[in-house]
Fold these 2 entries.
Entry 1:
Amino acid sequence: MPLAFAAPDTQSVPIHIVDQDGLSDWITKQDEVTQSWVNAHAFQAKLGKFLAVPSANGHVNCIIIGNGTAASRKRSRFALADVSNSLPAGVYHLQTELADDDATEFALGWLLAQYRFSRYATQADAGAVLKAPGNVDANRIQIIAQGECLTRDLINTPASDMGPDALETAFLNLAQKHNATPYIISGNDLIAQNLPLIHTVGRASVQEPRLLDMRWGKTGPQLTLIGKGVCFDTGGLNIKPAASMGLMKKDMGGAATVMGLAHMIMALDLPLRLRVLIPAVENAIDGSAFRPQDILTSRKGLTVEVNNTDAEGRLVLADALALADEEPTDCIISMATLTGAARVAVGPDLAPFYTDNTTSADAIRKGAVTARDPVWEMPFWDPYEKMIEPGIADLDNAPAGGFAGSITAALFLRRFVTEAENYVHFDIYSWQPSAAPARPKGGVGQGARALLEALPNMVNL
């Protein structure tokens, strides 16, 4: 399903955006047919509600979309564009002049609302196509939507078809599409090349653990993206209960989001050098599975006491972070579906992030507003460092007590980045639990659009 705007010269139906408190004034400026139709249907211009107004010959003359009140707009995003799934088939254009950011939100939301996951069951495509508003960057919006939909497809695909093998294939396809250079380390080669934690977590699976590595770009600042690629998480020997295991196909959401963001960066040809690292594993169970109380030695040389095999994501990320930190890098960003504690703290809609770099933090917060991609800054709280120090080893992968779980996980990861001065970690959910405007139930990207907006300030593009 192509996510694209209609050609500019296509005949189209106008869309009017009307504030709830401005409806009466708007009606007085319309023709008699429109006035009668709006009044007959008691249209109130509530946020996201729409009315199709017919012409004298019975065709659609225009669409009116309610813009609600200022208070209602604060409580929703993409509400206007979500109407696209309910409109009659045809081509539409935005008649109302919106501010640049609002027009961009409308256009992006329209494309994101067209997403369908149809790999296993036929899904009817939306018949309503939009002509890009004149004051938006149509090419950039289409690329962003394509990256987001790549992320959604990867997350929505079950582990039976999106294990480490398939994730590698998707990774290689992305590299080929953008003329990037991939490098794969798998199986026992992980041990030979000193990536022991990735091997340990994934060795019990039928599909070998591996590190996916991609480089793109020849000049500019160096950006390294690292995504947690746990294609399914049983919890290991600390096996999850059924209720907790049901959504674990999404435990590679960090990898999927990083790949979507990488697509945006490369398709937009940003002037930087990009490296993408994804430890791709399945946390499975057999006689070779790692055990509680095992003490593991990481690539960096730090030892880790395993107090819960279900805290595996930070282990595979640790080796990838250490590898990334071994070369000069202007910014390292890790993204992972890492902790349930983050969901308890901020719910499914916000993407928590951590950084000690104030320039990056400011840029991400501002980028999130522009991109309509909400985030929330969390602290690398130094006094909690002692919580991840078990005494018998350098680090504890699952501190007892249950407090500050997202923070202690972030502190654990920070131990493996000692050279790069600009490190950002996202603890994302990657799942839309119920349908929302432009976000159907299922896999969803979080933080990628905010980062794309923030990158020029984060790495001095």
Entry 2:
Amino acid sequence: MSGRVWQVGGVAAVGGIGYYLYSAGGNPKVAEKKMEADAAKLRANMTSGMSGKGTEAQKHSEVLAADAGARLDNALKDAKQGVSKIDTKLESYRQEAEKTIEQKAHDAQVNAKHAVDSFDKNVTEAASKAKSSASGWFGGSK
């Protein structure tokens, strides 16, 4: 591939030199001056075209950068709003969980008090029956 590129490039260079020699009537000095003049003209056309294109490209890139900045700002704003909504929901869930825990703790406390009261009542009744039974053995009145 590389050898072929050199061959094509060489043929193009020889063809270019041949063109300038032919148009100069075979005089190498005149051909060289014509080639230099054409190169200068080509360079001037390229730089003048690029200076206008460069400004246009710069303006276009500034517009694209501003558009990208605006899109980024909107995306950040949307993300912040999403995070804010999530924070609000999480706070709501936390408050609900706290209320539920407090309610369950209160219910457990009430049930524990009832269980203790019931146990005390049963123990007191059993102790009273045991006392009356024991006093019957030792001749006490019922």
